[in-house]
What we know:
- This protein has 20 helices and 14 strands.
- It is an alpha+beta fold.
- The protein is globular, with a radius of gyration of 23 Å.
- The N and C termini lie close together (11 Å).
Amino acid sequence: MRKNTTIQTSTASYSSNIHFFHSNIKSLWRPEYGAYMVEGTPGKPYGGLLFHFNIVEANMKYRRQEASKLLQPNEVLMSLTNFPRTGASDFTDPSTQATPSSGVSRSLFFPDEAIYPGHPRFKTLTRNIRQRRGEKVAINIPIYKDKNVPNPFKEDFGNLTENESSNAAKEDHIYMDAMGFGMGCCCLQLTFQACNIEEARTLYDQLTPLCPIMLALTAASPFYRGYISDVDCRWNVISCSVDCRTQEERGMKPLQENKFRISKSRYDSIDSYLSDQGEKYNDVPLTYDDEIYNQLVDNGIDKLLAQHIAHLFIRDTVSLFSEKVYQNDEEDTDHFENIQSTNWQTMRFKPPPPNSSIGWRVEFRPCEAQITDFENAAIVCFIVLLTRVILSYKLNLLIPISKVDKNMARAQRRDAIKAEKFWFRRDITSDTRKEEDGQPEYTEYTIDEIINGKDDVFPGLVPLVNSYLTSMDVDVDTHCSIQAYMKLIQKRASGELLTTAAWLRKEVVSHPEYKNDSVITQRINYDLLKKIQKIVSNEISCPELHGTCISSKTNETIPAAVAKAEKVPLTINR
Length: 574
């Protein structure tokens, strides 16, 4: 009997720690990069039964309530991808000042005090990335050119300006210069446990083409440094914020001190598929360390997995601590995890940790955080159900890696869900490359067509999920919750409901204090967050964002019969 896929979700960002679970703990908390951030996960992975889809939202609500107990008066806990005024003047409380000529980031805007001080990892990463690069990171995001935005838009940094920032800042762009602008963002991550390595490789590959689709569908971060940008997502901001490549590695100078030309930041989309089925779609040249590759192959590792690992190791470590240098590599994987955990990509392939019952896992990383637990639970349940559909129906979503990269660029554009088309496989039920009637294997679809289907052309992902569910024995409450989630996904995809990013834009530009200059003042920011909190606490409704019904039958209590069924031993194929 195949072990059902289990899931673990996170509504904050970028933790890759090995997790140890206890049955009597409902939530786990970890510090994150920003001193204003916290990562929350379930106390243990959700189970593999359909009923467990109904406890995801309940657990998210519990975590929100639990963390809120630590708040001071006039403080609230929010699930935001990015605080709109991060890096703007006086954006922290207590007020702090950036230190351009000292500290770990040397930022004009982001103070070191905003980096979580309780663990050395975060400031060490910040310092090492800047020092390895040989200069500060440079993030330039196009500004939204409203009618009162200067043409060209070019900021005057006054006495703060030094040559490095003056040269790095681009016209008509919002300039940022520190790791905190990216790693200070939050996201929604999912980790799936597969029954064996082959299923893990299949999930890794099949979910990859969905990364840009889900990034566009969950778009929630149009504001940076107190300005309205012309993008809707965080991805490129984070990618640039940890780009430790030297000028040689970026192709700006001939290779002399460095070994490789590297095409992407260490935070970006994946570069190769891992399954035999996906190998033929690896159409982008892959840079990897030949010595490591040969060592792996010589010890029985297949070509695809060997080049994946060897590709990770073209990066230097950026967070090695002295007490971790000398390890027993026969029993510990700290040296591997040190590299693995600082290659932040759309997907992560996670081998089992040593001396643990945890199996092969796959992490899905592109989704942006939504403001309510209902929305976040809907996204989680939709993606997990897609994994069930992919494995049960043996779907094939694969397209060339180069097309996935193009989709990632399109997904971040303003209003991409309505304005853009995305490369997607025409026939997801077939594994053949044969082109029939002169039609290519993949074509361009809208998000609406991919999610909801196109008559006689493409079945749609939600209809496939619904078809799968009709063949399963689903209890009434779980069925009601899942259908509410699927309706939200469908209506966001069709444009009937706004994405979080589109709604945030609308709220700012309609504020009475807004001057059509793409500036988010403190008053605009406060009123926006106040309204978000009222929506989260159900004081007001937001039909533009959620429709007429955002209620589910979520329940954190598992029926005794279900709990008993979970304890039945499973024979796991490995």
